[in-house]
Amino acid sequence: MEWSEKIYWAAFQQALGQEAAEAAGLAAAYYGSVAECWRARDQAPVAGLTTGQREKLLLGRQTIDPQRLGEECQRRGIGLVTCGEKEYGQELAHFAGYPCVLYYYGDLGLLNRLSAAIVGSRRASGYGLLTARHFAGALAAAGFCIVSGLAKGIDAAAHWGALAAGGGSVAVLGCGVDVVYPPENRALYHKMRERGLIISEYGPGERPLRWRFPQRNRLISGLSALVLLVEAQASSGALITCDHALTQGREVWAIPGPVTNPGSIGPLRLIQEGARLAITPGDILAAYLPPEQRRPGVEPEAGVGSGPGSGSGPGAGAGVGPGPGLGAGPGAGSGSGPGAGPGPGAGVGSGAGPGSGPGTAAGTRRAPGQARPGAAAAE
Question: Which of 158, 171, 209, 372 maximizes the CB count within 10 A of its CB?
Fold first, then answer.
C-alpha cells in the first residue's frame, strides 16, 4: 500500500480507535479507498457504518490532518503497516478491535513469527527476573519470538533474555513508538529498535496514559500463540493480558513460585484455575515444537537452577541489563536461602523470598471488559 493511502488509515484510527479497522474496510469498499472517503465532502450512509462512526469521522476531519501526521512519522523515521498488508501480524486480525494501523521501529518480519508472550510484575523478585530471562532465552533460541510490554521487571527481563540468546523480540507500547517509557529502560528501548521490533497503535509523541496499558495488553496476547505469566500479585495488571489471551483463544501458562511470596499468588491462582504449568522451558517447547527443533538442555526434565545462589532467598539478584551475566552488582545472585539447585527434585528456594509475608487473596477470573478488584491499570 502506498504511503499516501496509509496516512489516511492512520487518521481513521485516530478518529475511530478500536472501531477503525472494520470501518476503514467498509469505507474503502464503498469509496474505492480510505483516502477518498476522508476527502469526501459528505459522508455517505455506507452499509455497516453506524451513525456514531460517521459522526466521529466528520469530527476527525476537522481535527486530524493526515498529511501532517504522515510528515511527522517520516521526520521521526516511524514506519506504518496497515491491517490489509501481508507484513501485518496475521494473528492480530483474528480478534475484535484489532488496530487498522501499527506504528513501528525495527524488524517488521517479527510480527509473523511463532511468538510467546512473557508477562509479569514490574516489582519482580530476583527469582522472577532470573526465571523470566531464562525462559525467554530458551524459547528464543528454539525459534520463538518473545513478546512483552517493555515495562520494568519481568517485561524487561524477557526482552533482554531473548536478545541475549540471539532471538527476536517484540515490544508493544502503550504510547507512541518514539516515546521512551519507562525512562529506566532507555538502553533496552534502543537495543529493541536495533535488533527487535517496537510497535504501537498510538501515533507519534502520544504519551503513556493509564488507560492505554490495558488496551495494549490485548495486542501482546493477540500476537502470541501463548501467554506465560512469570510472577504477579493478585492485583497485577499482567493478569489483564491473561484475561485477553483466554478471550482470544490463546493458551495461558504460569510458573509457580514460593507461596510466601505475594508475587507467586497470581501464577498459582491461574494454575489452580486451569492454566498450564510450566516448570522448565522444555514443557512449553514439548507442546509446540517437534523433538528435532527443541534445543538440548531445555527438555522438560532439565532444571532451571544454575548452582548456589540461584534461589529466591534474601539477596538473590538477577539483573535485567545487557551482557551475558545476570548479576546486577557485586554479590548478585548470592541468596542466603536454599537455592533452586540442579539436584534431583530441586525446586524453588525455601528461604524467605523478597517481600515474603502473608499472601494476598486472588480474585476470580474475569473477562477483559470486567473490572478485577484492585487490578492495576497502568504499567
Answer: 158
